């Protein structure tokens, strides 16, 4: 059976095991920037909620034993130490006070308190008051004999001074004298004062006095010496005692002390309420206790129990456990009313008959219990039809109770009578009824039907979701919470999702409640969601409570709301609070930049303006100041044109940056939805390597331009020279052609005419005359062909073909025994042959035809001129003569083959001859045609 639940605050203890250099702490202090400082007997520590920074004698602290910390009007920190010296923390640096010698020379082992005014003058309370000016002049401030004197400063700081005396009779404050009675046996011990409700209170040893009228009136006697007084933001008066913990009072009657059980027996040296509302208690024995929300009361449940189910009404909260125990907790007293052992895991429950009976379902059966926890009726397991009355989940409407188990859906009246059972072909784990609509959540997925259960439709938007609950919201909307996928809102046919994709970082939701707000119990705490903003604009904005900010556990399994009171129940226990009195997790942690590094070396922000191309590894180390919310996210980018990078690491690093200007953006958030910009020196210019500079590029551009200018100028001159040479060559060729035509040609014609006269006069033999005539005419013809080639800059394929046609025509006229066949097939007639190419091709054709005429005994000579797909210009001469043996050297010489080959090589044309005895001869020459041919 379960024992009574205990009551306690959720707290965290900081000691030597988790960050402090010592568990003996004399003061906890918060500076104007929000940092928490701990004064210990082994140095002073600065804390931002996540990181500790230790200061001791090795980094500027004058003495390791620090009793107290003060902040002057200029926001410098001063540390009062055991060695009667002090150090100043200013602009991030710790330096010893330059007039520490004055402090050390004072009488006594230590001074009781210290203060600093706006002029930098140091005041010390020991026996009387001593002032040290900023120039180092030590001055004594008079104190009346046998009296306490209270010195006041602008920031409501007070110091108490008095002279050694066997009796103390008066207190002086604000120019007024108050009588006081202190027995010499009691001694003075520690003397401290505090203003509360505009009245001064003075603690001397165990007695608390109030200065009223003209006397110091005792208002409280402590069993142990009072060593600390403070007032919180709710105007409660706190007292810290030696070996007796801490207590506080809400009114000045001092009749109703509120104790802090967790501090029982501790020596509480200081009490601080920070800017987030959390309380800090420094002790001499166990370090520092931090209570983020002292208005949240937490209650422990037995450690070996696992909660399966919770249910509440106006009076009680019922919690069922896997062990079979059912616990009734009174909402007012938060104590156990009763508990009962049902022997099997408790899985579901519902109230019957106006809540006078409680229907509880276990893993095996269902039972009815009265208000006293007595079982009045039991529904046993029925094997024939399955566990009809055992339900995994119940849902109550105005006239029915609906339940589901592995066999189907159950329908009961309000008197627990089974009305019907609807078999299902899937295992339903939850049921929700909204009017005539019935929603059934399976192991995964969500289905919809009506109360007849005739047609069940699966809702595809939930096919992969594990449903943890369904909740009715305003406007007949239905909130569907899931484990691992956030939540979705059904509004008619419209389904809106809120998951990680939409910025929701709490994706496992175990419990919900709806009133003026939406309350979500998640795996990372309790969320209070702005319901109007969610429903009207679809925006998800919330306040958070988790273990860091006061809950007993991060995981919230069940939520019960009653007026302004909230119950958060988890496996560890439950937390109860009034949401008007507590502070939610800080949504605006204070960011700072702790370090800027370039190539892993720390630099000043001013050094980031211009960096060498080698200094291209840049890092920023950020810190955040928050004590009740460390749920922080960062996103960063190197310019506004690139995408964000997301991280929970507070170190942002960029490696191997290219040269150029960078404007780094860093933003932080506590919910990944609302982002705030961190202002820091973010503009960086990385200068390029010398060969990437604009000057080098301009030089390269100029040099390149100069090279191109020289190159094209030379090319232009070369072209001009070629044109000049071409013009000269053309003129020379025209002159040679003219000379050949006018001189040699005319002389050959004269020779031919003169030879006719000789033949007639001297009666030369006709065969000899014929041969001479033939040679002369052949020479004239070759001369004309040469002149034809020389006179042209180029010969087109058409012109070459015309020349070949003319040759064949002459051959046909002069030789009647041989038949000549000419085939011309060309597609690139506009291609121009060089004169040397044209004349050499033509001579090869002439040579081949002449050889066939003389030696082949052929009666058919074929001449084929064409071009092919390989862009070659081909000329082929073929006869049907007797052929010859190509390997026979004498034939090579006789047929002038060397002459034809040399002509082909001269114009870089291929030359081929194919022949066999009695099979004719074929000569083919081919020339590759190009645009420059």
Could you characterize the architecture of this molecule?
The chain is of the alpha+beta class and 933 residues long. The strands form 19 sheets. It has a five-stranded antiparallel β-sheet, with no helix packed on it. It has a five-stranded mixed β-sheet with strand order 70-72-73-75-74, with helices on one face. Helix 4 packs antiparallel against helix 6 (835-855), helix 5 runs parallel beside helix 6 (835-855) and helix 6 (835-855) runs antiparallel to helix 8 (897-906). The protein starts with 5 loop residues before the first strand and ends in a 5-residue tail after the last strand. Mean pLDDT is 86; it is low at 382-386.
What's the quick description here?
The chain is built from eight helices and 75 strands. It has 933 residues and is of the alpha+beta class.
Query: How would you write the strand order of the largest sheet?
Result: 1-30-57-56-55
List how many beta strands DSSP finds: 75
Rg, alpha carbons: 55 Å
- The percent range for helix content is 10-25%
Query: How does the helix and strand content classify structurally?
Result: alpha+beta
Q: What percentage of amino acids are in beta strands?
A: 35-45%
Low-pLDDT segments, ≥5 res: 382-386
In terms of quaternary structure, the protein is: single chain
Described by the principal axes of the CA atoms, the overall outline is elongated
| Individual helix count | 8
Give average pLDDT, whole number.
86
Q: Could you describe the largest sheet, including whether it forms a barrel?
A: 5 strands, antiparallel
What's the end-to-end separation, in Å?
Answer: 111 Å
